[in-house]
Model the fold of this input.
Amino acid sequence: MTETTAVSLEALRTLHAADLADRLQRLPAEEACALLRQLPPDTAGAALAEVEPENVPEMVAEMDPRRLADLLQRIAPQDAVDVLQELPPGTRRAALAALPAEVAAGVRSLQRYPEDTAGGIMSNRFIALREDMTVAQVRELLRSRAEQERTEDVAYLYVTDAGQRLVGIVSLRDLVFRRAERRMGDIMNRDVKHVGARTDQEELARQFEHYHYLGLPVLDEEGRLAGVVKASDALEVARKEATEDMQLMVGLSGEERALTPWHKSVGRRLPWLYLNLVTAFAAASVISLFENTIARWTALAVFLPIIAGQGGNAGMQTLTVIIRDLALGELSPGDGRKALLKELMLGLINGLAIGIVVGVAGYVWKGSPTLGVVAGAAMLLNQLAAALSGVMIPLGLKLLRVDPALASSIFLTTVTDVAGFFFFLGLAALALRLVPS
Amino acid sequence: MTETTAVSLEALRTLHAADLADRLQRLPAEEACALLRQLPPDTAGAALAEVEPENVPEMVAEMDPRRLADLLQRIAPQDAVDVLQELPPGTRRAALAALPAEVAAGVRSLQRYPEDTAGGIMSNRFIALREDMTVAQVRELLRSRAEQERTEDVAYLYVTDAGQRLVGIVSLRDLVFRRAERRMGDIMNRDVKHVGARTDQEELARQFEHYHYLGLPVLDEEGRLAGVVKASDALEVARKEATEDMQLMVGLSGEERALTPWHKSVGRRLPWLYLNLVTAFAAASVISLFENTIARWTALAVFLPIIAGQGGNAGMQTLTVIIRDLALGELSPGDGRKALLKELMLGLINGLAIGIVVGVAGYVWKGSPTLGVVAGAAMLLNQLAAALSGVMIPLGLKLLRVDPALASSIFLTTVTDVAGFFFFLGLAALALRLVPS
Done:
């Protein structure tokens, strides 16, 4: 080991784990691997827990399973689970086998829950008390735990019965100033808000946001206390989740980042672009139906993208606000009709406001009042189609139990293109028959 | 008061404040106002603190300033500030005048900070200790505070010097099991992470997410402890902020909701649609330049929206991922070149992959190999234009100190429309001259 490496190792050790992880992820994979092998196991483990899921496999690709197991048993079990599930099955099995039996059991019990549920986010390192414990006993317990192990920040302690069912909650604050002989059963608050282990992460974030908790207890299927979720963990998940919607809307995977290697991005983006191409040809075939009309009246080709584009933009506004409100739980499915009526009202007003401008512009620019009337009317109709599909697409996807954001912008612009082209060219063809120019 | 109202009042009193606020917001304004007047001041105040900012004015429109002041002094000062700033200046002044001088001063000191900064989000109800206080004294202080006032969940206590400057942090946990005679100066942790009162809310959320804190102390310009932000408050802000980006991108105000009354929505959405109309006419005028070409070759009109639309979709993917990474602090401005090279690489590959399909389709569908070559080449060029503008538009907006999401989709589709039409029709015109069909 050269002098330089020794110095930089020393500097890295003093960083916060999250900052160290950032550094490692900016290095070439081999260098990051080498550092993870050389750093003290506590430091390396804490950093590994903070590495983005996507970068985990290459960081530990060449690591000895025993070294990996050594790192994993030094971090919170839920972080170990997150690391393990990014690994190929062979590596995962080897690392699990190298873990002490007790740690492996803790990891396995967490692995039962999907990543995007309360069970997948919770920590199972919590302190559970019994009703008959005194304040003095609990203080002693906290002292011994603090010496024994790296413990998490806690704000609440949970009281369980013999069957491990949650019966009450005690704040650390109470423990500070209650008399030493008081029992948990007397001082605990019995009205405990909790979530099930299968609760979806969006719902979990909503609970935190709505009630301003610092932590929430998680119960398993039998009502036993299984873990605790901290507000800051829910925050991380909620931010990722909220930005995932904007990515899904435009046909991006939720894992896509600006600096994801291009060869990975191609495989993720191209399929959506091909799907979009199919829908674009469907819209184009509507134009193709009216090629004769365009041949007689080429100014139509100039206005086509205006009609379709304005529909697409208004529709995206409707779509975005509906998806946002669904994601944040501010729009319940029962509100669908109210939202639809509102958006149709907006479509009517915006349609008239834009339709009149486009109609006048059509007349002034191309000198044809017929073109003005046709363009204005098509604009109005397409704004209504945009409002309708902006509401119905996300609600429909939700009904099909798909994320309401999934590729919704592709579906929406298909509707506004097809409808826009059809209204405009259809009306134009009709006008040409009625008012020979 | 009728029997029915009395019963429902009783039922409402037992709700969590956040749930009560939800109920009130779903009632007609007059009914909500009446309930706020009839509910006990503690309950009414707590509910008012949870009402969405937008709905605050109509809830308190008819309320007596003394009643309003009574409610405000029962809630956290930062919540009182949030309520006050939604009110018309006259009502605000009347309510402030009716507040006890001490409470009014607390409110005024918070009003100094913009809503979207740490100072605007923090609570100034924190417990500050001195270095020479003993564990026993602090326990006594906590007990007396708990009896005196409704206090917030706390996980940490802060230690300040004579100049109110933050010098250390003590966890409640330490207070539970440390010996009664230990002094804060000995047991406190001197390495305290903190933020400035002017720290932007996005940066604040990043700090919470990165370091997993339960709470963060906020310092004023002179380095004095000014308040504390809880993780759950940062979470609420971060979720709103993240979804605001998807709204700004499509020209929606961040305050827009699915059930915002339509007359408010019209004023917010229509200006953006008009701006978009101007850009649509700019793109249409490109088509207009080539009207003669279209008159000779109407199949071009069929392919126009395919070329432009695919550019728009690919560009939206690039734009979204860049805006997301900028917002979450995962892309530093120095990474701009790297991101641009990646997106151009993707544009080249996607452009070839889609261009070939469109080229073949053009030949098969319309029987013209020239059309195929022109459409394929225009598709490739427009994918490159999409990649370029998808990166440069948000980075450019950031450079201008505007939110990178602001109306960015409108700018982007202007580029992909103008470039798409120009490449396609320009190449077609050239082809017609070289290869007379």
Remarks:
- Residues 336-366 of chain A form the longest helix (31 residues).
- Residues 1-7 of chain A have pLDDT under 50 and may be disordered.
- The first strand of chain A starts at residue 128 and ends at 130.
- The domain at 3-111 of chain A is CATH 1.25.60.10 (MgtE N-terminal fold).
